Amino acid sequence: MSHQRSSPPLDRLLGDPSRRERITHVEHVPAREGRRARWPDWSPEPLVQRMTAAGIEAPWEHQAAAAEHAHAGRSVIVATGTASGKSLAYLLPAVATIYDEGQDGTVLYLSPTKALAADQLRALRALRLTRVRAATYDGDTPRDERAWVRQHANYVLTNPDMLHRSLLPAHARWRGFLRRLRYVVIDEAHGYRGVFGSHVAQILRRLRRICARYHADPVFVLASATTSDPATTASRLTGADVVAVDADASPRGPAAFALWEPPLTELRGEHGAPVRRTATAEAADLLADLVAENVQSLAFVRSRRGAESVALGAKRALAEAAPSLVDKVAAYRAGYLPAERRALETALRDRTLVGLASTNALELGVDVSGLDAVLVCGWPGTRASLWQQAGRAGRSGQASLTVLVARDDPLDTFLVHHPEAVFGRPVEATVLDPDNPYVLEPHLCAAASELPLTEDDAALFGPTTADLLPDMVRRGLLRRRPTGWFWTRRDRACDLADIRGAGGPPVQVIELSTGRLLGTVDESSAHSMVHEGAVYIHQGESYIVQTLDLEDSVALVEAAEPDYSTTARDVTDIRIVEQLRSTAWGEATLCHGTVEVTNQVVGYQMRRLQTGEMLGEKPLDLPPRTLRTRAVWWTLSPDQLESLGDMDVAGAAHAAEHASIGLLPLFATCDRWDIGGVSTALHPDTGLLTVFVYDGHEGGAGFAERGYAEAAGWLSATRDAIASCECEAGCPSCIQSPKCGNGNDPLDKHGALDMLAELLRGAP
Predict the structure, then answer these.
(1) Where in the sequence does UniProt note compositional bias of the Basic and acidic residues kind (predicted)?
(2) pLDDT tens across 293-339, in order?
(3) Which of 153, 152, 157, 147 is nearest to 123 (CA)?
(4) For residue 579, which of 215, 291, 556, 593 is within the disulfide window of CB 3.0 to 4.6 Å?
(5) Beta bridge partners of 632
(6) What CATH number has the domain spanning 45-245?
(7) pLDDT (tens digit, 9 = 90+) per residue, 230-274?
């Protein structure tokens, strides 16, 4: 732990001396002065007047710089911190084109969620700009209003799903809007990653193609949290050249950032491994203590159930220590109504609420200012998200506190013991792969249904297009004619792409007693999420799956309140289809290529919610699934294994595999549930000890490729994570995995350290 002076809120948390050992590091971020710029000469006067009336006398330098790029016709990404005012960077040119008598331009705004678009609409309307006819166009827009939006709105707020399924397929009805389209605003651009980001990249290429049909060439303005190499990422997302503005000129108050590791408990998990106190229980106590000290705080929790658990735990603690404060704590649930959202934000602003537990719904641009502290319950996936969440505190210029509470997980454990991996280094690059044929193919069909494809379109959709088209014709997806490739089927081509999922039709989750549709689960996730006996959470309510009907894609559930969670267990085989790249690491070899993964869910575990204690395991009988994807793998030679002496080779490789899966999200913007792994002492395709880590999405999502590119840093971090864990033989904080199909057996912690050291000895 650093010896710098603690912030007052942190001092209060440490009132109990036994807690001091839970803090592994405190980072102090100094205050930053803001740097103003002049309003651009072309700024629309009504907008300047409204901004001035709201106390914004001049833009920050990054706002003005990004706006100037956009106004000059250059696509731009503004990648700066939370509360840095990115919205003004796109509002300035957007409103200017609407107020320009010679342009009469239109603006299309895209956000990943309907809630964020609704917030933006409210903010726009509050400016009372008479010429700006703004409207949302999403699944909640009534049918009779949609015609008005198409014909009269000049600032349309929507999401990629609606662009894909409605606007582009019906582009002829939007031709007036598209002909005058000057700007496409892409908000929260860092969220477009992995398979979802790859789909959105192809949707944006389809949009550019349709705009060209109407002689329009819109400028893209992207707003993002800080991200590594934002210009390259934005260019890959849009398919256009993009410049970056990433020097944040907005002011910030001083901040303290603590890394917090919950203590070990007397409970024992698999094979007697020690179990830490859960991050949610720890966060609940911290939230209660902050509320008791009148420190207005927000706890970010990864799941809806977790958010409610933290709020409930804080209420229980306050009921004992300070009963009058129980109503000062609430949870921010999915499924809230707009009126409830407004009431909750109002309660935060006027301090009726002092503590709030939320999912990342409040990470995405919702305007909540004045908070004093943020608790981050478990690593949120990326440094970008971590700083986005931390930025919710101190937005009014006051000193703030952020506490990252580690979960019992290899990555969380590594980070709280390696602060240099969190602080003082750039955030991750956003990983996406628009050229993935499983992503590209359905969008080529959709594009052909919008306008026949021509050979010139290959430059827009990417280099794999030319290879895919002949096979698509052979399979009857497209028909080749002298003028191009045509979609000739009667069904809607846009239905081929499930942009937020992967694989076949989604499984519908239906309440057995009422017949009510609760939600859907991606086909690729159904075996592990809605198998028989699974605990399914919907809008904070718990259900237990009674039946999973794979033929009809239906899961029947009943309401329940179990005190446990469920985790599927699976077994996996892997076959190398094609080795694309390889690098010699001395006698070891690192490879990247195409693999075929056969996976079968064979059972599930039950763990107590509050403690993580293992309650039991039950078998399942589900069919195997086959996935063709991309993987990174490494091998050791027989001489290297012999040099390591007598060890449990299979257990060492298995432990190294688990830990490397846990650490890859630090180097590729993914969740550990987006990737999988297989290890074997003798793989039939290599004839050697081989450890694989693969993308869990058809065709790959770019994560394994990033692992190959960052292998030396990634596998060094894996070794360090295992070495720094205080357990003797392995635990969930280092080498045990919650989804291991073999019950975390065999595992050899010390053998994994020796094996990784031997592998890294030859790393370039």
Answers:
(1) 13-24
(2) 999 999 999 877 788 889 999 999 999 999 999 999 998 755 555 56
(3) 157
(4) 593
(5) 592, 693
(6) 3.40.50.300
(7) 999 999 999 999 999 999 999 988 999 999 999 988 877 666 777
